[in-house]
Automatic annotation (TrEMBL):
Family matches, as SMART domains: AAA (SM00382)
GO MF terms, alphabetically ordered: ATP binding
Gene3D superfamilies in the record: P-loop containing nucleotide triphosphate hydrolases
Upper taxonomic lineage: Bacteria, Bacillati, Actinomycetota, Actinomycetes, Kitasatosporales
Protein name, as recorded: ABC transporter ATP-binding protein
Key word ATP-binding present: yes
All copies of domain ABC transporter, residue ranges: 20-257
């Protein structure tokens, strides 16, 4: 995506290049005086075969955007497509099937089943769906993620990084069109976090996957091809080929704006940036 998302002309998604698309995507929670506009008419294209990171201040709508794009949450207005399929308006049963067949999820908590070993956890969603894994693909995923000698281990016998790699393999197992990762490194130490990011990168480069990752960490976002910046429910900026430093600088500008809004200016009138992003940089 080389132009700001808002400049793309609306219309049906060319299914070969765009993995997910939203037009005028609006999500409000609650009603009346307590209503919160979590997404405010967002236009976005998620390019196929790329690694996209979504960043923004707390409460800017990152998770809501991911949930709406993945059909995990209903929208208040606007349209969402997954590939060529418009998912807004689909019945819950069709949506469940579409999520199962076409989307992989990775969350901060790995959600592994403690009584199953790594191999069983990896194929569990497919087993539940009655699908047979493509053995060749699965072997590639397992080898790419370096899990070959851990397949018989249960989660408690694996390190945090290994558990997250199992969760990554589970997301990849059915070869989904799109992988959504919500803070996939949030619970990991920096070394394990880096490992998982490197594997997501490999999934994109070597396995041709499409990944969308929500993160607070500029270092994590630097592994992506493109960073989308959200503020107050809108995509306000994007950055191609990000570096951790450039992302951190961009995030600080949000903090400066926020500090000015909150009246948090220093004596000389310069805003005092919130150093949250520094603290979270690995
Ligand atoms: N179920 C809900 N009910 C009411 N308000 C909600 C709900 N979910 C999210 N919100 C509100 O919508 C806005 C966007 O939330 P969202 O979780 O998408 O932000 P975020 O950028 O992912 O935040 P964080 O970085 O803190 O996880 C916030 O103001 C939040 O309080």
């Amino acid at each position: 995506m080389s132009t700001p998302a808002a400049e793309h002309a609306p219309g049906p998604a060319p299914a070969d290049r765009i993995a997910a698309r939203a037009r005028a995507l609006t999500k409000a929670y609650g009603s009346g005086e307590t209503a919160v506009l979590a997404l405010d008419s967002v236009d976005v294209d998620i390019a196929r075969g790329r690694f996209t990171a979504v960043m923004g201040p707390s409460g800017s709508g990152k998770s809501t955007l991911m949930h709406c794009l993945a059909g995990l949450d209903t929208v208040s207005a606007g349209q969402v497509w997954l590939g060529g399929t418009e998912i807004t308006g689909l019945k819950e049963r069709d949506l469940t099937r579409l999520r199962r067949d076409r989307i992989g999820f990775m969350f901060q908590s790995f959600n592994l089943i403690p009584t199953l070993n790594a191999a069983e956890n990896i194929t569990l969603p497919m087993d539940i769906a009655g699908q047979k894994p493509d053995r060749e693909w699965l072997d590639r995923v397992i080898d790419t993620l370096g899990l070959r000698d851990r397949l018989k281990h249960r989660p408690a016998q694996l390190s945090g990084g290994q558990q997250q790699r199992v969760a990554c393999a589970r997301a990849l197992a059915s070869r989904p069109e799109l992988i959504f990762a919500d803070e996939p490194t949030g619970n990991l130490d920096s070394r394990a976090g880096l490992e998982v990011l490197a594997f997501l990168r490999e999934a994109v480069d070597n396995l041709g996957q499409t990944v969308v990752m929500v993160t607070h960490d500029p270092g994590a976002a630097a592994h992506a091809d493109l960073v989308l910046f959200l503020a107050d429910g809108r995509i306000v900026d994007e950055m191609e080929r990000p570096t951790a430093e450039a992302v951190l600088e961009r995030m600080k500008r949000f903090d400066v704006i926020r500090a000015q809004f909150d009246g948090g200016e220093g004596e000389d009138g310069t805003a005092v940036p919130d150093t949250r992003a520094d603290a979270e940089e690995k």
